[in-house]
């Protein structure tokens, strides 16, 4: 796989920031641009502009940690906190808007009822993203 120029890194939790950033930095060309994204996913009846200070604080912490790692690699970067009822559609829109050629995402084995019924963000991106998608899947806890 050739080095990527425009990489979206989907960051959901603090525990996966280092691993995903390491992957993105290693797969990017020396002139790559990283788009570091966290999606605040809100339930359908909740307005997207709802006040959610705890989630906003977490998003800020995640993106700051990712930004520190990116600065060590000297890659250009920008960050975004997106608000959506579904993370997959928000990420696909971001991929299209920024002409991303690689999306790097984490995956967890814990599944919610919604994921069982509707599918995971990773599944939706694997089917619908207009770019390569790299999933970092940890070993199961079995």
Strand runs, count: 5
Q: Rg to the nearest angstrom?
A: 15 Å
Fraction of residues in β-strands? 25-35%
Helix content: 40-55%
Q: What is the CATH level 1 assignment?
A: Alpha Beta
Shape: globular
Task: Using the coordinates shown, work out and report the CATH topology.
Answer: Rossmann fold
Could you tell me how far the N terminus lies from the C terminus, measured between alpha carbons in angstroms?
32 Å
In CATH terms, the superfamily is HUPs
Secondary-structure-based class equals: alpha/beta
- Round the mean pLDDT to the nearest integer and report it: 87
Element order: H for helix, E for strand: EHEHEHEHHE
Number of domains: 1
Instruction: Please count the helical segments.
Output: 5
Q: What can you tell me about this protein's structure?
A:
The chain has one domain (4-136): HUPs (Rossmann fold, 3-Layer(aba) Sandwich), CATH 3.40.50.620. It is built from 5 helices and 5 strands. The model is unreliable at 113-118 (pLDDT under 50). The radius of gyration is 15 Å and the shape is globular. The protein has helices at 17-27, 53-73, 87-97, 113-118, 121-128, and strands spanning 4-10, 28-41, 76-84, 102-106, 132-136.
């Amino acid at each position: 796989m050739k080095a990527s120029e425009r990489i979206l890194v989907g960051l959901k939790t603090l525990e996966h920031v280092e691993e995903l950033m390491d992957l993105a930095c290693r797969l990017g060309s020396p002139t790559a641009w990283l788009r570091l994204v966290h999606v605040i996913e809100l339930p359908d009846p909740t307005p997207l502009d709802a006040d959610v200070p705890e989630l906003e604080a977490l998003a800020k912490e995640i993106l700051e940690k990712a930004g520190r790692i990116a600065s060590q690699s000297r890659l250009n970067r920008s960050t975004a906190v997106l608000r959506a009822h579904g993370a997959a559609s928000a990420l696909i829109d971001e991929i299209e808007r920024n002409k991303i050629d690689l999306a790097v995402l984490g995956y967890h084995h814990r599944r919610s009822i919604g994921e069982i019924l509707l599918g995971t963000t990773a599944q939706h991106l694997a089917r619908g993203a207009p770019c390569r998608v790299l999933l970092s899947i940890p070993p199961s806890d079995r």
